[in-house]
Every structure is written in structure tokens, then in C-alpha cells.
Amino acid sequence: MSSELLKRILSSIILLPVAFYFILSGSFFTIFFTIICFIFACYEWNKMINKKSYKILGFIFLLFSFYAFYDLSLEIFLLIFVILICISTDIGGYVFGKIFKGPKLTVISPKKTYSGMIGGYLLSSICLLLITNFTDHPGTPFQLFLITILLSTVSQVGDIIVSYFKRLANVKNTGNLIPGHGGLLDRIDGMIFAVPTLYLIKLTGLINI
After folding, report:
1. Measured distance CA(195)–CA(198) in Å, rounded
2. Cα separation of 48 and 170, whole Å?
3. Is the pLDDT of residue 14 over 70?
4. Would you say residue 166 has pLDDT above 80?
5. What is the pLDDT of the chain when averaged over all its residues?
6. pTM score > 0.70 for this model?
7. Disulfide engineering: 127 pairs with which of 37, 75, 77, 88, CB 3.0-4.6 Å?
8. How far apart are CA 20 and CA 3, in angstroms?
9. How far is the CA of 41 from the CAs of 10, 80, 110, in angstroms?
């Protein structure tokens, strides 16, 4: 096992329980956690991007994304659901990409492969199966499956979009806050797109959840 992978695993073991503690505690704790993460994300974006028009649009998007995060925290199932789908998509993509390799998905992010994409869909679907079997969930299993595929897709696209901006800035990571992962934006690149997607689904009522 490489030292980088070991750092990645240890960081996740430590940080995920802390993050879920603040989210599940609710009230002040969730607001505090959301604000701190928003500040770090804005700091990394500001440091990475030099072009003013990109920078302003990025701040606006991050503000909307973190507002959506807080709004979904008021219905905790939806927030935990989207977080778990993004995490399982990320893990599935990483593991399948490492094991099976194969053709590259895009030149924007050379580490992304078609096998990783399939792995992301597969593991997020398995995660959904566990969620629907062991929780009292809103919506039908089919509705949640459609949302899962959409969120997994948006999460993977979000990863690629952040990679695109990193290439423009000629940096490997958005920061060095999290050992093995890089910056906060490196860790939540898919979530900042998937969370507002689920928020809009909830807001518009396109799917009953």
C-alpha cells in the first residue's frame, strides 16, 4: 500500500465521523460546520483562480451550494443520502479505476477511466440498496434509484469540472488541508454539485421525496 493511499484512508477514518457528528448534531453545530467549510472552500478557490470573472462566479456558486447543504440538513435523510451517494461514487471510481484501469474518460482528468465511472455507479447503487433496506425513506425505491444515478453522474462531472479549473491554474490540488486528498475542494468536488442538484429536485418537486 502506498503512503499516499494510507494517508487517504487514515484521513477519511478521522474526518468522516467528525463531519457526520457536526451534521447529525444539528442546530448551531451544523451551521458552524457549514460556515467553516464554506470559508475554506472560498479560500482555496480564491487562491487557485486568477481570472476575476471565474472567481466571482465561483463564489456565487459556492454560496448557493453551501446554502443548499444547510437547507437539506433540515431534512437530515436527504443530506445523509446525497453525502453517502457521493462518497460511494468516489470510492467506487477510485477502486475500480485502480484495479481495472482501461481507457481514459477525459483528457481533463487523466486518472478518470470508464471502469472508474462504472465502479462509481455500481457502488452508489449498492449504497442505495443498503439505504432503502435499513432506513425509513421518502419516495419509492425506483425514484431513489433515478436520483442516485443522477447524483452519481453529477458528482463525477463535478469532479471533472474542478479538475479542469486545477489544470487552468496548473496545480495538482486545490490545497493541502487534508493529507492524502489535498484541499477541501478536492474532497468535496462532487458534493458541491450533487447537493444543490438534490436541493433543486426537492424545491421543484419534480420527484416526490
Report:
1. 5
2. 9
3. yes
4. yes
5. 88
6. yes
7. 88
8. 26
9. 22, 20, 24
